[in-house]
Design goal:
- By secondary structure, this protein is an alpha+beta fold.
- It has one domain: TusA-like domain (Translation Initiation Factor IF3, 2-Layer Sandwich), CATH 3.30.110.40.
- 30% of the residues lie in helices and 37% in strands.
- It is built from two helices and four strands.
- It has a four-stranded mixed beta sheet with strand order 1-2-4-3, with helices on one face.
- α1 packs parallel to α2.
- It starts with a strand and ends with a strand.
């Protein structure tokens, strides 16, 4: 996961995962990769909606058991 900023929100429920992602995205440079780890089922819905509003592109989204991993790229 080199070159990525990791946001580990596992163990937290809505809205914490999105709030943590928002904090990192606000200071991200264009093209920066951010990986969000979450285990809140609502993250599957909340993260794509937030990404669209914040100008983030979801590069990868995976689910392993009850955990979700989103790789996002900051926009211009």
């Amino acid at each position: 996961m080199s070159g990525e900023t990791l946001v580990d929100a596992r163990g937290h429920r809505c809205p914490v995962p999105t709030l943590r992602l928002r904090r990192v995205a606000a200071s991200a440079t264009a093209g920066q990769l951010i990986r969000l780890l979450a285990d809140d089922p609502l993250a599957r819905i909340d993260v794509p909606h937030f990404a669209a509003q914040a100008g983030l592109t979801i590069v990868e989204s995976t689910t392993e058991g009850a955990e979700f991993s989103f790789l996002l790229r900051a926009g211009a």
